[in-house]
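FAQ: What does a ligand-bound record look like?

Like this one, built around magnesium ion:
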Amino acid sequence: MSVAVAERPAVASQPRQALRPVISFHGVTKVYPSGTVALRDVDLAIHQGDFCFLVGASGAGKSTLVRLLIRDETTSTGRIFVEGNEISRMPHRKLPKLRRKFGIVFQDYKLLSNRTVAQNVAFAMQVTRPGQRHLREKVEEVLWIVGLEDKLDMFPEQLSGGEQQRVAIARALVHRPRIFIADEPTGNLDPDTSWGIVQLLLQINHRGTTVLMATHNREVVDLVRRRVIAIEGGRVIRDEAEGSYLREGEATL
Ligand SMILES: Nc1ncnc2c1ncn2[C@@H]1O[C@H](COP(=O)(O)OP(=O)(O)OP(=O)(O)O)[C@@H](O)[C@H]1O
Ligand SMILES: [Mg+2]
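The answer part, i.e. the structure of the complex:
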């Protein structure tokens, strides 16, 4: 698939904040009420503008890490900081502001089937920032970024899987998040379409947004050669700057 978005001009990246990580985990353990230990003593530092793959077998703890980060779940022990704020103990009233820092997409796009592409994106914006002016303009801008400016008035069922995922990405981008999280965003897509989605995430990263992508997509990770954080049994077992899906000599994850 050719990805029109790759040719679009990028806005200047924000300066890297080398000193303080934008996201940090300090000795984070998560035990679900069932007794499952999903994360064990995780330490992690992600800087503004990083692009990180989060890899690991099914059940390794990737989605748990994502859920802790957006405070969808709370840590059992340890501390998590996002842009200097300790989110692991943040009061509920502050969570909406925290969540506005994030753009999030999942494997299932969760689009509203009875709304058009433009309405799906606008809806997200009205939820996060009610009363936004110039709504249509902003919706058109993000749909242009994801290369769907000609599908504004289509309904989700009229789109391919890759296009639906791009609507989900546009929806997550509309409030200009500083951190973009994608949990297995290519899980339901064929290799070419998956590649297009990853190109789009790289483009978003190129604009200065920090990106964290949990994935099983070995081909993509090995082609892109960005930071790879590997989790096994809830522990970070590898963290490499230009990593591959498997460590050299490893047969499976
Ligand atoms: N809400 C929950 N309650 C109890 N256990 C859970 C819950 N969510 C996840 N788990 C367990 O925690 C562990 C980690 O799950 P998690 O969803 O984080 O894995 P994952 O790496 O995202 O896997 P996948 O690649 O299949 O998405 C698994 O053993 C899982 O069964
Ligand atoms: Mg998962």
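Follow-up question: can I read anything off the structure? Yes, for example: Helices lie at 62-69, 95-99, 117-128, 135-145, 161-173, 191-206, 218-224.
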